[in-house]
Amino acid sequence: MSGSKQFDKVSVVCKANVYFDGKVVSHTILFPDNTKKSVGLIYSGQYTFNTGAPEIMEIIAGTCRARIKGESDWKSYPAGTAFKVAGNSAFDIAVETGIAEYICSFG
């Protein structure tokens, strides 16, 4: 996990990534070494995301539950924890109350 509270010397894509009628919103961050992350919010609800590249979802505030494609059990992820998703896969994510904030690392 990055444990970062801020990213320095990056470019931010100003156009938001908006999913599920605004219930999940993120912004893409581009790093000088060509890596990419997104930072965002997940409002209450349950959502399914497909992955192209492998992803690491780091929860930085709030709590969510996630179930990776092929797994039967949901696991809880409070702030300070993370989960990995393989490329060309999918995951379900759910927030019961409040908002979960995350950093998603790609690649």
**The named CATH superfamily:** Jelly Rolls
Mean pLDDT value: 95
User: What about the largest sheet?
Assistant: 9 strands, antiparallel
Spans of at least 5 consecutive residues whose pLDDT stays below 50 are: none
Shape: globular
Radius of gyration from CA coordinates: 13 Å
Number of domains: 1
Percent helix, as a range, is under 10%
Which structural class fits the helix and strand makeup?
Answer: mainly beta
Strand content: over 45%
Q: Under CATH, the topology is which? A: Jelly Rolls
CATH class: Mainly Beta
Number of strands: 9
Distance between the termini: 14 Å
Total helices: the number is 0
Run of helices and strands:
EEEEEEEEE
CATH-derived architecture: Sandwich
Q: What does this protein structure show overall?
A:
- The chain is built from no helices and 9 strands.
- The chain has a single domain, classed as Jelly Rolls, CATH 2.60.120.10.
- 17% of the residues are buried.
- The chain is mainly β.
- 0% of the residues lie in helices and 62% in strands.
- The chain starts with 10 loop residues before the first strand and ends with a strand.
- Strands 1, 2, 3, 4, 5, 6, 7, 8 and 9 form a 9-stranded antiparallel β-sheet that branches.
Protein topology:
Blueprint: E1 11-12, E2 17-19, E3 24-30, E4 36-50, E5 55-61, E6 63-68, E7 75-78, E8 81-85, E9 90-106
Antiparallel strand pairs: 1-3, 2-3, 3-4, 4-9, 5-8, 5-9, 6-7, 6-9
Supply the key terms.
single chain, 107 residues, mainly beta, Jelly Rolls, 9 strands, 0% helix, 62% strand, globular
What's the short version?
The protein has strands spanning 11-12, 17-19, 24-30, 36-50, 55-61, 63-68, 75-78, 81-85, 90-106.
